[in-house]
Amino acid sequence: MTNRKGLVLDFGGVLTTPLVPAALAFEKRAGLPEGALINALYLDEEMSRRTAELERGAITQTRWNTEAAARLGVSADNLMGRIFADLRPEPSVIAAAAAARRAGVKVGILSNSVGTGPWNLYAGYELERRYDAVVISEQHGLRKPQPQIFELALRMLELPADQCVFVDDSEQYLAPAAELGLLTVHAKEPRRTIAEMETALGISLTTETDG
After folding, report:
1. Quick one: which of 14, 123, 165, 192 is 20 to 30 A from 174 by CA?
2. What is the predicted pLDDT for the residue at 105?
3. What does the DSSP assignment read for 42-71?
4. Domain boundaries 6-17+88-210, corresponding CATH code
5. Which long-range contacts (CB under 8 A, 24 or more apart) does 53-56 make?
6. Which residues of the chain have pLDDT under 50?
7. To 10 degrees, the CA torsion angle through 149, 151, 152, 155?
8. Residue 209 confidence (pLDDT)
9. Are 206 and 194 in contact (CB under 8 A)?
10. What is the pLDDT of residue 205?
């Protein structure tokens, strides 16, 4: 078996708490019926295209906020930030990534951006300092599931696909990574995610004090 020396992590929902509960909490605060956000923004064909454009950096977060707000019937002011206001760091996975680096594994971030202004999803996480490669989709005009963005992350890590593990909470992005040769982990729950990462890398990523 190839010795895997690279770990590529999605950001939202992997290094943070899950996205869906945060979105549901926003709906409740905004007085929207449950599911309104998904129906208006992700099941609506036009708005789905706008979100893809946002992820590629083709439109700004401010424009996305304006168009999304019109569909939801809410204020556009910092809408993206309000939707994900309840997101928090996932300390156990962040600690596991740090443990992987200490063990000699190169760790990269591969994230579909939601724009960085006026609200920055990545603020405070010190990505450039804590990780060996950081690929934010809007900075490259690419987005998952395009194979080129996975290939870019591999080039930045200077590792072939068959030496890397890819972790994402969105199942739809796992198959394109697997087709390139990465071993994939579907992030559903932090403890299970870390256990699968340990198995994939063949190293321990926890300590006795991690609980």
Report:
1. 123
2. 98
3. TSSHHHHHHHHHHHHTSS-HHHHHHHHHHH
4. 3.40.50.1000
5. 54/113, 54/114, 54/115, 54/138, 55/112, 55/113, 55/114, 55/137, 55/138, 55/143, 56/137, 56/138, 56/141, 56/142, 56/143
6. 1, 209-211
7. 170
8. 44
9. yes
10. 97
Residue type for 63, please? R
- Specify the domain boundaries for CATH 3.40.50.1000 within the chain: 6-17+88-210
Task: Count CB neighbours of 20 within 10 A.
Answer: 11
Q: Which of 72, 88, 78, 75 is nearest to 21 (CA)?
A: 88
Identify the architecture of domain 19-83 in CATH. Orthogonal Bundle (1.10)
Closest CA to 187 of 4, 15, 3, 21: 15
Token couple for 116: 């960085």
Enter the tokens of residue 26.
């926003």
- Decide: 137 and 149 in contact? Cβ < 8 Å: yes
Write the pLDDT tens digit of every residue in 108-153. Answer: 999 999 999 999 999 999 999 999 999 999 999 999 999 999 999 9
Query: Tokens in use for 17?
Result: 């708490």
For residue 211, what pLDDT is reported?
44
- Does the reported pTM lie above 0.90? yes
- How far apart are alpha carbons 48 and 86 in whole angstroms? 23
Tokens found for residue 94? 């962040």
pLDDT at 136: 98
